Every structure is written in structure tokens, then in C-alpha cells.
## 1
Amino acid sequence: MSGNFWQTKLFNLYNQRSVLCKFSAVVVCLLIFVYYGYLRFGVFVDLKKEFLRREYFSDDEINGISLDHCKIPLVELNNPEYLRAYQDIPTLMDEMKEICASTPDFSKLENNKLYLTDTTFKNCCVTEVTRKWRDSLDNYILSDSCVQIGNHNNGLDVAHMEFIEGRLKPKIDFWKNQSSSERPYSIFTLVIDSTSRAEFFRSLTQTVDHLLSTMNFVNFRGHHPLGEPTQNNAMPMLMGIQRSVFKKEYIDYNEQKFWDETPFIWRSFNELNYLTGYFEDDPAVGTFNYGRQLGFEVQPTHLYTRPLMAAHTDGTNYSDYKQYCFGHRNVIEFMLDYHFETLLHLSEVPTFQVTWPCWIQHNYGGSLSFLDHTYKNFFKKISENSQILENAMLVVVSDHGFYKTTPTDGYAVTHGGLLERRNVPLFVRLPDRLQREHPEMVENLKWNSQLITSHYDIYQTFVQIAKMSGETAPLTNLTTYGSSLLEKIPRNRTCKEARIPETMLDQKP
Ligand SMILES: [Zn+2]
């Protein structure tokens, strides 16, 4: 593909619900159409109540798991210091709720047709937003070509707009004559940033119930982060490489280099004719852009939300949190809708997608319960779609625990907070088709869920799925760590063998 082709970035998928529009040729705004649903905020969990009795976090588990050479520590969910540190969070949640509720929707999308719902906006048009070519400042630009919406009384057909169809069509055409039973498995990974396993269980109670009771996810009890901050975990998960090794061979944190040539696993899937996607919410804390990093010169995956999010943030008032609202929807609802619609409309195409939301818990400890209904609703929609369940492996994980501290929020460095940070959630659901064809892998997954695992193992699981799909060239000459979660890991695996650094352990291996 040409550089120019890859340079262009989708502002909007044909199945998405937002477009960029211009007022009177000078004012640019983001149109958000009505989302049929409402944000129901999760109740801030009363930790003193019966959560400890829940079967998914049993008394036995609270006491930690102790394997031959590695121990997961006791974690107290109803820690008084946690309750004290985050006692004001419910008030913040109420404020957040009001912010998005008062943000208007301008448009709606139905059957790939885009309609203006507020006809006072007469000069709105659809365009794409891309990263400015060879721009180290990572600015976005709008395309010169902008298609008017107002003239289309029957709705604007956005599915066949060139900047959308041109990007997706080659992959769709490649697979259209293949039967679904012969297509490779899709992979969808949701990385909820800055969330310990304890926090996931105490704050996302509806989501946990749905994942385990309805969808039969396998629940990993001993999954370890590999450090803090995000990059120490993103590289192992997406490249299988330790950050320190990576820095010697590719990019040091402070180097002014683009990330384009680094060996992300999505490159293997692209080679196998998958459609790939990488979705982040807040451009200020993008994993490969925060600090002074340059990010990607050419968008790394077919679907990529960063330019959209940058444009949206730029068009809103940062000080009043409006950058977190897409009309009535908060940014996580928007991202999950994006992701779900992608899974739905591209269900005939193998996809490898990673969605990595930071809002809201990345900046506010104890706030994740705000999104319980949002996440639960997303998985509910997936669980009602047999085609997605049939073909897609679903992974829910966090990179690391919450570790930010402020003068008024010191929980992360209390004894309980430190222990929590040593264990992150991991839930895996294999595609129904794979479960039928390889029941031994289901058993291996369950076996491994009781052991010590790390993000390297997630990477090797991706590699195994890629190998089941076809041959690809090696991405790197460096040694990659970990063991596939679909293969039986020895029970006597040590933390050292799992490549978990001592700083992430409660006790030495
Ligand atoms: Zn992170």
C-alpha cells in the first residue's frame, strides 16, 4: 500500500455514529447522533456488604493462592483505607453524569445512512480526519473533501464513501467467498487501564456477573502485571518483549522516533489478511504518544481512533470535561459502540482489535463503578450475537493497577493498595467453534487460570491463534517470552519463569 493511502486516517467508520462537520465553512464541530439508551450509572459499591461472599471471589481466593514457587497475596476488598480514600467519588460520578446528559446529539446513523436530527445545522458535512504527514507534533488535519449531509433527505450513505470503503474493501473482498467455518478466529481484547483485579471485582459487579454467569469466561486468578506504567505491560502484551530490551533495539522513551517499525502482533494478523484495529480514548495519555513520544507516523491498524479523539478533544472545552462526551454518550460508550458495530458489520472478516480505555479510572481512583453498566451492556450485546461468539476470542484484562497518588488520594501506596497492584484481572472466552474443535484447549485454559500468568502469555496466545491461521514471517529476532494460555503450563512454573519482576511480587520468587 502506498504511503499516502496509509497516511489517511479514518475519521469515521461506515458503521459509526459521529461525523465531523463544518459550519459556514469556518466552524468545525463534531456531530453526535442520538444514542438510544441511557447511561445508567453503577451504584458505588458498598464494600461492606456481601461482596466477599460472592462465589467468584471466594474466601479461599481472598486468602490468596499459593503455588509451588510463587504466591498471590491476600487482598482485602473492603479495605477501610480504600473506603476512606474514595468516599467523595460518588459525588464526582453525579457531576460526570450531568455533563454528558446535557450535551446535545446532532445526528443519527441507521442502516449505514446518516441523518441530521437537528436541522438548524444546515452546512454540516462528512469528512475524514488524518494525522498530518511527517508532523512530529501529531496534529490532525481534515480532508479538503467534505460531503454535505443536509442535502440528503433520505440520509447520506456513508458506507460507500471512498475513504471508508477504500480502506476496508480489499479485506472484505478477500474473505467473501470463504465459508465461515474455514475463516480464522477473530480476536477482541479489551484492556481496561489502571485496574487491579480487586478493583475490577468490587466495582464492575454487574459486568463480572455477566462475564462469568452468562458468557462463561474463564477467570484467571493469578494474572500479574509486569510493572508500571502502561508501556511495561503494553510491550509484553502486544510484542512479547521486555521494555528494557525493546528500548535497546528499537526506541528509548525519550527518543524522537516513530513507532512504525516496531514488531506489534497486529502486523502478523495483517499479513494473514485480518482487519486490524487499535482504539484508545484520551489522546493525552495514548500509550505511544504520551510524554514526548511521536506515536505512529502511518496509522498502525486499519481502524484507529486517535485522530478522531484528537479532533474531538480539540473541538471541546477541556476544562469542563466535555471531551469525555460524544453527545449523550460518554467516551467509553462511544468506543464500545464503535467496537461492537465493527464486530457486527465485519463479522464475515477475521479481525484483530484492541480497545484500551483509560477514562475514567486512570485519573480517578475508585471511579470504575461509574462504568459498570456501560461495560455490562456491551458484553450483553455480544452475548446475544451468536456469530461473534462463534468466531471471536474475547479477552478482558488490565495492564496494571491504579498507582497514581495525590495528597488526597494515597490508597495506592497503603499496604492494601500495594498488594492490589500485584494482581490484575484476566478473563478469556474462546470462540464456540474453537471450543468444539479443540476441547483440550478449553481444559488447558481452565488449568492455566489457576496458575501464575502474565501479559507475555497473552502475547503467545495471540501468536498461537495466528499460527492456526497460516504462516507469517517472524516479527522480531529478539526472544519473546511467555507460554500460550491454550497450552498446559506446568504447575511448578515460578514467577521468574513467568518473567514477573520482583518489584511486582508480594514475596520473592
Ligand atoms: Zn496503563
## 2
Amino acid sequence: MATVTNKKTTAKTTTRSNGASTNGKAKTSKTSKSKFSKETYLDWYEVMLRIRRFEEAALMSYGQQKIRGFLHVYIGQEAIAAGLKSALRHEDPIVTAYRQHGIGLMRGLTSDECMAELYGKFTGCVKGKGGSMHFFSKEHNYFGGNGIVGAQIPIGTGIGFAEKYKGTDNLCVTMFGDGASRQGALYESFNMAMAWKLPVLYIVENNHYGMGTSVERITNVTDIYKVGSAFDMPSEPVDGMDPESVHDALAKAAAHIRAGKGPYFLEIKTYRYKGHSVSDPGLYRSKEELKEYMDKDPIKVLESRILDNKIATEDEINAIKDAIKAEIKQALKFADESPWPPAEELYTDNYVQEDYPFIRD
Ligand SMILES: Cc1ncc(C[n+]2csc(CCOP(=O)(O)OP(=O)(O)O)c2C)c(N)n1
Ligand SMILES: [Mg+2]
């Protein structure tokens, strides 16, 4: 098990040594009772706990008005990030929606630079200019979040096209919510990806709700994976509360895509415990429904599985908990003490085209 750390240099090493580059296979040193190795279980636990604690801290800072604007948390959905880390390669690009801190942290962005980004500080992963919805990292092949629902679907399709054009065997993970799955952009992208056999792994994170509207209220086809069948795209449902299921489904899909057979569509069924964003009181769902999902919380279930099957000791679990606690405390301090972007930064990183032909004087 790699030591948990918030330091950028070590985080990189952790990323490379955690099984993410094993072509969809979990590590081989399996325990006798478990399908995956001890390292894989503990890495899943670490990834999921980091996301959970990071976002709990972010919600607290939001309440203190240290973070402003939008804040969409991933709490409840962390098993998806864990499966992505173990089943895919670090080289596989990922693009997703605005609920995206967890995917960035999983990819290797540090808690320090992510928290500073939420605070709008210059030390943030995109210099404080992106905030909660727009992390980005070329180094970690993370194309980050998109605020326009469904906008990332054609972008991910284009990234997949680029990978094929360059002759790599990487695939582009293109993630979106159930609310985006009825956008026209999805249908055009699916059609093009199948016609050109593009290496794209489409993932809908079906957490049952858009911005207060349930999936049942917007469609009669509530099993979203079935949409793929209109394009003959291989499509499957996945239990998103369990990293083992997520890993297995992703590894199978990745093998298909890397064999040059074209895209794959997974509907990962999950749940978010918090509202759509911090300002959402969640009046559209019952407390009983929320409790039902919290009872099968992916982090608690994984912790019990690790301990009950003696995959690791309580001391090892506690060491991870302590290290994550210290890491998040440090990230809050780092974000607090970091400087704001200097005024001249307003003039950098802007897209400017002087001869834009469609604007008249
Ligand atoms: C094109 C567009 N329409 C509407 C919105 C407003 N909006 C933001 S999030 C959202 C719901 C998206 O739900 P889902 O895709 O299920 O993602 P979740 O929030 O559940 O992760 C809506 C309608 C938007 N950002 N972009
Ligand atoms: Mg949703």
C-alpha cells in the first residue's frame, strides 16, 4: 500500500503504482478469499475516502463563504472513481460533467491544488480560474468538467477520434449524468462513434435525478443503457455502489474498445446523498429513499468487506483514515494561505481570434 499523501510528487508515484496501468487487470497478488489484491482493495478505500473527506471539508468551507458559486459534490458516487482507477490506464483521457472533483482527485490531482482551486486561489489546478466545475490537467489526461449538460459528449467523442487518428490504443472515458442522456448531442455522438468505431467508453452515472427531476419523470425508458441498442452499441447496466462491479464492467468494456471494435456504453447506477448543488434542499425525494442508499454506503461496505475477509487489519484501515484526515486539514490550510491570482492573470489563458469572421462592426 502506498503511503497516503497530499504531496504532488508522491501522488504521481502512487498513481503509477496503484494498478491503473495494468491494462484493465487488477494486481496479481490476490488474497485467498478475495478476487482482487490487497493493494487494490486498499487503494480503492483510499481513493474513495479521500474524495468523501475532501468534499465534506469543501461543503464546510462553502458554509463559511470561503468557496463561492456552484459546488456539486460526488458524495455517494465514489465507487465509480475507484473502479475507474483500477480498471483503466492513466493515459486514457477522461472528460466529465460539473460533478467532477472526485474524478480529478482519483486521477492524481492533489488535495492541495483542488482545494485551492475551489477557493479561487492562484495555486489551484487551473490557477483559480476554473473553480468547482472546471478542473483540468494535461499531465493527468483529465479534460475536466463541463457546466453545459451533455456538452462533454461530443468533446469526448472528438478526443476518442484524436486517439484513433494518432494510432494509440487509449480510450476516452466520456462521463455524463442521467439528465444529459436525452440531449441531442448524445445521439449524434453515438451515431458517429459507431460509424467510425471510435475508442470511446461512454458512461452515464445514473444517480436517478437531474436538477430535481427524476429519471421516471422525463422518459419511459428508465434503463438508460438501452439507448445504446438503437446504435448497436454494446451497452450494459452496472452496480455503481460497488467498486468490484464497476471494475469488472470497465475492464470488459475497455478490452472490447482496445481491440478496435468501437465504443461501449455503461449505465452505472448510483446515488448522490447531497442535493444537486449546495442550494438544493432535495425536496423531490423521500428521507427513506436516501436512507436506503446510505445504508449501503460504498465506503462502509468496502471497509466491512476488507475487515470481515481479513484482507487488511483495522490498524491498516485506521492508518489510511488518519493520513487522509491530515491531508485534508493541510489542503484547507494551503487553500486559506494561498494568494489570489494577480490582476494581470485576467489577460492570460483567454481564447482570442482577431479576425473572427462572423462579427460585424
Ligand atoms: C444545456 C443545459 N441545460 C440546462 C442546464 C441546467 N442544469 C444544470 S445541471 C442539470 C441537471 C443535470 O442532471 P444530471 O445530468 O443527471 O447530473 P447530476 O447533477 O445528477 O450529476 C441541469 C438541467 C445546463 N447546465 N445546461
Ligand atoms: Mg443525475
